UniProtKB/TrEMBL annotation:
Residues 90-120 form a coiled coil. SMART domains: HTH_MERR (SM00422). Keywords: Coiled coil, DNA-binding. The keyword Protein biosynthesis does not apply. This is MerR family transcriptional regulator. It comes from Cognaticolwellia beringensis. One of its GO terms (molecular function) is DNA binding. PANTHER family: HTH-TYPE TRANSCRIPTIONAL REGULATOR YFMP, REDOX-CYCLING DRUG-SENSING TRANSCRIPTIONAL ACTIVATOR SOXR. Residues 8-75 form the HTH merR-type domain. CDD domains: HTH_GnyR. Pfam families: MerR_1.
């Protein structure tokens, strides 16, 4: 029998580590994305919860909705070795990559337009100053 105690975290520790509010963490819990154990009123988060929280925040930065992140978690938890589950996860990832590439193209186009507008404004200013 092992005497190794699993690593646990309080809500405050996770909030400080990820620079988010405890309210945000409770919201992710309400959405079923993380599931801490409880000791009385105290939430106790394990390593799995910490990793999921990190993935939730990374997903948000990359444009994944919480529903999409939750779906990925569900699929992964359901059966890590199922070809169907893995293909579904890969499809979700592929769709998100396509969305992000389109956004990148749109951003690049807007940057070109803004640079042109900025140049026009600089030229107009230069002609006024003469």
């Amino acid at each position: 029998m092992s005497d190794i105690t699993p690593i646990t975290y309080s809500i405050g520790e996770l909030a400080r580590e990820f620079d988010i509010t405890t309210r945000s963490i409770r919201f992710y819990e309400d959405q079923g994305l993380i599931i801490p154990t409880r000791k009385g009123q105290t939430r106790i988060y394990n390593q799995r919860d910490r990793v999921r929280l990190k993935l939730i925040l990374r997903g948000k930065r990359l444009g994944f909705s919480l529903a999409e992140t939750g779906r990925l978690f569900e699929l992964y938890d359901a059966d890590k070795s199922s070809a169907t589950q893995l293909k579904t996860i890969m499809d979700l990832i592929s769709n998100k990559k396509n969305d992000l590439n389109q956004q990148l193209e749109d951003i690049q186009a807007v940057l070109i337009e803004l640079t042109g507008l900025e140049n026009n404004c600089q030229n107009a200013l230069a002609s006024i100053d003469k």
